[in-house]
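call fold(seq) -> C-alpha cells
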Amino acid sequence: MTKAIRFHETGGPELLKLEDVDVGEPGTGQARVRHTYIAVNFIDIYFRTGRYPLPLPNGLGSDAVGVVEAVGAGVTDLKVGDRVGYLIGPQGAYSEARVMPAEVLIPLPDGVSDRTAATLMMKGMTAQYLFRQVFPLKGGETILYHAAAGGVGLIACQWARAMGVTMIGTVSTDEKAAIAKANGCAYTIVTSRENIAKRVREITDGKGVPVVYDSVGKDTLTASLDSLQPRGSLVSNGTSSGPVVIDSQLLATKGSIWVTRPAMRHYIEPRAHMLDMARELFDHVLAGHIASEPKQSFALADAAEAHRALEGRKTIGSTVLVP
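ret:
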C-alpha cells in the first residue's frame, strides 16, 4: 500500500487526510512514478474548496517529480529509472507514488535536480506559456505582473530579466518586494500602501503598459484595467481573490481593452509541443537565467498545514511536499 492525501468532502484544509491506497501496476500506455517532491499550487485550494468540482472522494495535486518504477505495454520513450515530472493529468499528485499516462511525463535533464524541477513543472511552464504564447513578449516591453513574489512570479521575474523586459511587480509586503527585485523585477508596488495604477503611470511616464498578467482577480481588476494602454491586453490567469466579472462596455471605456482567460491545457498539447516548452524552460535554467528552489517544504502528511500557509499569504515562492 502507498500513502496518499485524500478528501471526501469539500471545505477547509482539515479535510485533507493521509490514507492508504493501492497503486497497482501500470497498464498499456502508463507508467508508475515514485515521487520525490510534490508541488503545492493555489489551484489545489480551488479543488479542495469545491470552486473547481471533482467527483468525491478524490486525491489532490496536479504536478510532481520522481522516478519511473515500472512501465506498461506500448511505452517506448520512457524506462525504469528515468527521472520525470508532470503537470497535467488526473488529480492525485499528493501521494508517495501513482500510475500516470506516460504521454504526460516530461523527462528531466541532467543538471536540473528533482528539488528544482518540482518548482518548475506547473509554475515554470506557466511562465513559459504566459510570456511566450498568451501574450508573446519580444523584449523591450514594460509589463505589469501581479503577485511577483509568488511561485510563478519569481520565475517570471527572472524570465523577464533574461528577455530584456522591464517588469513592474505587485507584492503585499516590503520583504516580498526585496525578494522580487533580487530575482529581476525592475519595479515593485507594495499594494498595502501604494496605488497600483498611479505608480504604473508614474513609472511609464503616463503611458501605461501593453499587458497586465493578473492572477489575483477580483481585488486587482480595476487597477489592472487602469494600468493598461489603449488596446492593451489583460491576461487574467488566476482568481485568488475571487472571480472576475467584466462589463464589456467598461473595456471600451478603458481603451478598447483585450481580455483573455487562458488555461494551460489549451497551450500545452500535443506532447511534442509540451516537450518543446519544457526544453525552453530547462535551457534557461541550465544557462543560469532562472534559479528556482522551494522556499517552503512540508511533509506529505502535513499537506493541510501547507494549504493554511498558502491561503494565509505566509509563503514566498514555491512550496513543496516531501513524501
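The chain has two domains: 2-119+293-322, 122-260.
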